[in-house]
Amino acid sequence: MQDPRITDFLTSLQLERDASPHTITAYRTDLADLQAFLTAGGLDLDAVTGQDLEPFALELRERGLAPATVRRRLAAARSLLRHRTREGARTAGVRDVPLPKAPQAPPHALSSEQAILLVEHPDATPLGLRDRAVLELLYGAGLRVSELCGLRPGDLDAELGLVRVLGKGGRERVVPCGGQAVRAVERYLARGRTHLGTRQDPDALLINSRGGRLTRRGVFLIVRRHAEPLQLPDWVGPHALRHAFATHLVEGGCDLRTVQELLGHQRIATTAIYTHVAGTHLRETFLSAHPRARAA
Questions:
Q1: I want to staple 139 with a disulfide (CB 3.0 to 4.6 A). Which of 96, 241, 277, 287 is the partner?
Q2: Is 239 an active-site residue?
Q3: Same domain, 63 and 198
């Protein structure tokens, strides 16, 4: 049974910080580990210290969890304990427990040829037209899956080639999506959407075969449905198209600040990883363009 104090914390995340259901689920999973650790050790949540968290961190690492998972679970524990401190608990030194360094490996990136093959793979059936619209928006606008699923019919300005999305933390942004994506959505609306289900959700731009709003799981299945016949790697999912969007922009000479705005990143450091993905292209461009780039 979940500790009521953890339930209170999760409720505050939802109501005060407008955390998404996905975030709440992740926190609930991470904090279940902490609750089990405290129960086994006879420790009170409202009197936990940094010294108490050190063996918790060690236990997570000894279980063979990935550094990113250990980091996330410790971060969740620290957030909970800071919340309990504001509620009057006597936690101490929890910030002294270092989080494992986040892995900095650059994301996988599809080549532009692979990305184009993928987005052009769907056929002209109603579901195929829907899938083409999904893939074109993921690659043409660099949308997160949650942003894509949340699109409403009025969010796309076909004349200007712009789409309005609601990003993380409820932050709204308007991004260009390109002519191919616009035409794909128009074809889907004209010849595909009306054939999906007997009643369509009027507030959802992208719907499933029964007419309801498309889900994150549904988007993943769409990408894999078209990636597998092309023998693309197993890591190719919805986020791979967002990575490809950013990588190909950088390779094409787009500056990082612009890419940051298009992706909806709050910190430029998050966007900077794409310079590593596109590094080979950038180096070749430098060598061919700068008069002092090559040795005599």
A1: 241
A2: yes
A3: no
Alpha carbon separation from 168 to 24, 26, 172, 204 (Å, rounded): 14, 15, 8, 19
Q: Are 51 and 93 in contact (CB under 8 A)?
A: yes
pLDDT, tens digit, 9 for 90 and up, residues 79-94: 888 888 887 776 655 5
- What is the value of pTM for the model shown? 0.64
Mean pLDDT of 193-222: 94
Is position 173 annotated as part of the catalytic site? Answer: no
Domain count of the chain? 2
Q: What is the pLDDT of residues 111-149, one digit of tens each?
A: 999 999 999 999 999 999 999 999 999 999 999 999 999
Q: What CATH number is given to the structural domain containing 208?
A: 1.10.443.10
- Specify the DSSP element, H or E, that contains 277: helix 273-277
Residue 143 lies in a domain: yes
User: Is residue 242 flagged as an active site residue?
Assistant: yes
Q: Among residues 144, 187, 193, 248, which one is catalytic?
A: 144
